[in-house]
TrEMBL record:
This is Fibronectin type-III domain-containing protein. It holds the Pfam family fn3. Residues 205-295 form the Fibronectin type-III domain. PROSITE patterns: FN3 (PS50853). Coiled coil: none annotated.
Length: 295
């Protein structure tokens, strides 16, 4: 019988060396075994199962030096006595995708192991997920051959290779800087797919809040607003509320994010004129203040 060790149905990764072992005997009890390797290109039509290359070892011969089959495969005999044993090794390349490695002890059922090269990985879905200039991404496919991610920020000439799935951009000179960001997943052979997601934006402080409304009821002033309507990938940190009486300003900070906020300014002075303003804040600073006056 023939025993084949190491063959897997999982795709192989480019440039990651592979080694299989074949052993066996024909069971006749004579020193007449022949262990044979063969390589077949399974993608060829009408190949009639004829190997592209072969090599054979005869029982009781000296353990040999390595032999080459074709361009990519190397074999070596490790035991010439029953059971005979031999290894075959190779480094996966695209040229051998769909090849089949054959091994048998002549007179026994041969064993075939198919070579499938894993496809290049794909990455997409760049998302800003933090209150700083940190962004993350999610692989679109879970390639077994992922080597690293290549992150390119074209407008500031920033490129990095990383195995992480998030990255912090340099914070200096970010205001009014246009960023163009893309991420590609690279496999062990250096292959990658074109990026399927790209973000282009100008990093700046938030725009002005919208729909500012103030209303006095009794001794309280109620303030409400909506978030800035200018899309920004940088999350809002908080809102600052300014209000004053006779030029004495008071500031209150409340956390973000939220789609709508309302705040109650208590203990106002009857007959006084109040100016109330609201500004949004992100990691780069405070945006313009939207204000209104009530008396």
């Amino acid at each position: 019988m023939t025993l084949f060790v190491g063959c897997t149905s999982s795709p192989l990764c480019l440039s990651e060396p592979v080694s299989y072992m074949c052993s066996g005997e024909n069971g006749a009890g004579l020193d007449d075994d022949v262990l044979r390797w063969g390589i077949r290109d399974s993608s060829r039509s009408n190949n009639d199962n004829i190997p592209n290359g072969t090599t054979a070892y005869v029982e009781r011969t000296n353990v040999s030096t390595p032999r080459i089959i074709g361009t990519y495969f190397e074999t070596i005999l490790t035991s010439s006595a029953d059971p005979m044993r031999s290894n075959i090794s190779f480094s996966p390349v695209l040229a051998i995708n769909n090849y089949t490695i054959l091994c048998d002890i002549i007179g026994t059922t041969p064993f075939g192991c198919s070579i499938i090269i894993a496809a290049a990985p794909v990455s997409n879905d760049i998302k800003f997920t933090s209150d700083t200039l940190i962004f993350s991404w999610t692989p679109q496919s879970t390639s077994p051959c992922l080597s690293h991610y290549s992150v390119n920020v074209t407008s500031i000439e920033y490129t990095i290779n990383t195995t992480n799935t998030s990255l912090s951009l340099p914070v200096h000179s970010t205001n009014d800087t246009e960023y163009s960001i893309n991420v590609v997943a690279v496999d062990t052979g250096g292959r990658y797919m074109d990026p399927t997601s790209k973000i282009t934006f100008i990093a700046d402080v938030p725009g002005s809040v919208t729909d500012l409304f103030i209303n006095q009821t009794g001794l309280s002033i109620y303030v409400s607003w909506n978030e800035p309507d200018t899309p920004m990938p940088l999350p809002l940190l908080n809102y600052i509320i300014y209000f004053n009486v006779t030029d004495l300003y008071t500031t209150i900070t409340i956390p973000a994010p939220a789609t709508t906020y309302m705040y109650n300014i208590p203990d106002v002075t009857v007959g006084s004129i109040y100016t109330v303003g609201v500004a949004a804040v992100n990691v780069l600073g405070t945006g313009p203040t939207a204000s209104a006056t009530i008396s």
